[in-house]
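Today's session is about reading a structure prediction critically. Students often jump straight to the picture, but the first step is always the sequence itself: look for stretches that repeat, for charged clusters, for runs of hydrophobic residues. Only then move on to the predicted structure, which in these notes is written as discrete structure tokens rather than atom positions. Here is the chain we will use throughout the hour.
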Amino acid sequence: MPPSQASPPFSRKFVRGLLEAVAIIVVAVLISTALRAWVMRSFYIPSGSMEQTLQVDDRVLVNQLAPRFDPADRGDIIVFDDPDDWLSAGQVSSYRPNPVLEFLGLAPSDAGQQLIKRVIGKGGDTVECCDDEGRLLVNGEPITETYLEPGMAPSQMEFSVTVPDGHYWVMGDNRSNSADSRFHQDSQPFVPAENVVGTVFLLNWPLSRFTWVSTPDEVYAQVPEPEGITGS
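Below is the predicted structure for this chain, in token form.
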């Protein structure tokens, strides 16, 4: 029989186990960082501009691959970088990210520079307010926005715009409390496609409101493509 081998001393086993644990943690952090950088990120809702769809302090997950492979469409809720000082200096400076949540990927460090709204019109679309029944029109077709609170006017401000190619016209679901595209027509009312961080696909906190966030395709189903443009 081969001679018995002595077990490695406790200190060596401890160091080996510690190194393995550190390696696992490092790999986990690298994977988490890659996911946050390229695939998805978590954002919290700081204001009531998207109520009742999204409420203050909700957390949502954003698909960051969508802008690269599947550009935002009408009805999508998007997170985007401030296109032209939509946020005041006070709003930006008031954002205080939680370092623990940042490290865990539950809050982005640059969220103070970003907004969340719903896409109403994409490049080439004409968006108007409003028809005789108070509905928005997209390319001349009235839409019934099922995501608005019952009784809420789609807009109390009249407007008629044509969205430039590669841009979006966005509005908050809480139309009476959303400083969206309507309020920046003297500067830059349209969100450039390159400013889009991603598309919201999941409301993940609080758990009582956990739900998938889908695009309300039926709202825009009858909207024709803008003149001279075919396909989606």
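Discussion point for the tutorial: Confidence is low (pLDDT under 50) at residues 28-34.
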